[in-house]
Amino acid sequence: EKGLAQNSLDAYGRDLGRFAAAFRSAPERIPGVAEVRRYVDSLYAPVADGDAVRAAPLALSSRSIARHLSALRNFYRFLLSEGAVKSDPTEFLPLPKLWSTLPKYLSPQEIDVLLEAPDPAKPTGVRDRAMLQLLYATGLRVSELCHLEVADLAAEFGTLRVCGKGNKQRLVPVGKHALKAIENYMASGRSVLLKGRSSRYLFVTARGGSMTRQGFWKLLAGYGRGVGIFRALTPHVIRHSFATHLVEGGADLRSVQAMLGHSDISTTQIYTHVLRSRLRQTIDQHHPRA
Length: 290
What we know:
- The chain is mainly alpha-helical.
- It has helices spanning 6-22, 33-44, 62-82, 108-115, 123-138, 142-146, 176-188, 190-194, 213-226, 235-248, 253-260, 265-268, 272-286; strands spanning 153-154, 159-163, 169-173.
- It is globular.
């Protein structure tokens, strides 16, 4: 009903499944305030085996606990709207402290080497180069990249229609290098991979289906190792690199927010670390007593 992404639905489903498993011995009633509080406490640290709530098998991060609480809140709000409960036991639950971490990103030189890694003599290499070029040119999420359809690209206008989180659509400009790579892929790679089959998806596999998130993760990690980038290289690192390089080049945060598809500017503000580093350089270069 909320139009959430499938990944979000899967995560919330796992969280609610864990919550249900903790109270499997008393399925006839819905857990109240005391039970919910004990369960939430168990997410922070293991509890005694004799307690009604089982010990947490692994310690959860603050972000995982925050997502867990979000799942419980939505669940109990639904129960309240349906008349299944008379009050919401999650209403006053405190959220864990979330620390902001600097995004991992590649330097422009590392990006250049990575984009040249796929073999242009192979149809899969032509496809992979087009995907990497487009990912860096637009900052798409990996799920958005894999679900692109041929009709979403308006090459003559240099724009891409993207369906992001919550089924929200946005138009993203595409640079000439990415457009050229996609043109080469459409001319010499895609038809070879499809072998006469049809597909509405832009990026396809040798089996004719769309590229999957997991498949692209493996491809990207392999290309990273091939060019000597051994640290955790994920599609989100390329997304962070896109945004970081934009801000370094002078782009304002509102523009970056629109291109990334962030609903809240506070999510985009993580890239202000680049602005802070630029201020340091400005002081060093221009202040007489720096």
